[in-house]
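Pair request: fold both.
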Amino acid sequence: MAEPDFTATGVRIGRRLRSLTRAGQIRIHGGRLELLTSYGSEIDSAPLSTVSAGKPWFAQDDKALATVNGKRYSLILGDHDPAPGETGPPSAFRFLEAVRRAGGHLSRG
C-alpha cells in the first residue's frame, strides 16, 4: 500500500457548533479526502475534485474549513502536542497545500 499524500492525527473536526471528534484524522490518499474519527471510522470522504477547502481570514493558523459532499466541516489541526519523533503538529497551510496539489479546490473561508 502506498503512503498517503497527507495525514494528520489529533484533529478536532466539527460541523456548525457541534464537535464530531476531538482527536480525529485527516487523510489524503489516492485522490480522495477522508475525515475519520480517532478509532478510524469514516465521518465523510469524497474525491478531491469535488472537495473545497479554505482558511478563514480571521482564524488562527491551525484552523481550516473543508466542504465535503456539500457539508462544511471546521478542522483544527494544531490542537495537540506532537507525537514522539514528530517535529510538530501539521498546520492548516500544509493541509491546504496538499489539497491543492492533489486536485482539490481552494476557496476563501
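--- second member of the pair ---
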Amino acid sequence: MPTDIITAHGPALVAAALRKGLRSLAKAVVVITCQHGGQRHAMTATAVSELSMDPPSMLICVNKTASLFEPLSQGADFCINILAAHQADISALCSGKEKGEARFAIGDWRQSALGHAYLADAQASFFCRNVANMTHGTHGVFIGEVLEVIDLSPINPLVYMDGRYGSFVSGQG
C-alpha cells in the first residue's frame, strides 16, 4: 500500500508532483549529436522515444536553453546514441558546462557516411534526418526519420532513475 500519496492542483504544484513522479521512470541515457555551421554539438538526454516504424522515426525533446536547440530548430540532422553502462562519464560531460567540441573530448567519436557524429561503442546509434519540429512550453520537439542504425550486443545500456545512473543487463531476471 502506498505511504506517500500526493494530490496536486494548480500548475506549480502539478509541475512539482510531475517532477517527483518522473523520478520513478527509468530511462535509457542518450547523447544526441548534430553538426551545424561546421561545428559539432552534443547533449545528454532522456526525453527520447520511438515514434513510428512506418516510416521508421524517433522523437526527441530539447530545452530551448540548450545549445543543441538552435541547430535543430534550423533543421540540422541528428544522431541519437544510446549510451552503454560504462559511459556515465560521457553523459556527465555532455550535460555539464562544457559546450561545442569540448563535449567530444572523451569517447570514441566518429563521423558516419551521412555526416553524423556518433559514438562508436554506444549501445545503439540512430542516424536521423530532421523532418519536423514544434515547440511546447520550455522545449522543442523534433522528429527524425531514421536512415541508418548501428546496434551493438550484448544489451547493457546506461539507465537513469531517481537522480542516479544504473544498468540493466538483458537476460537477467
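Observation on the second member. The chain has one domain: 22-167.
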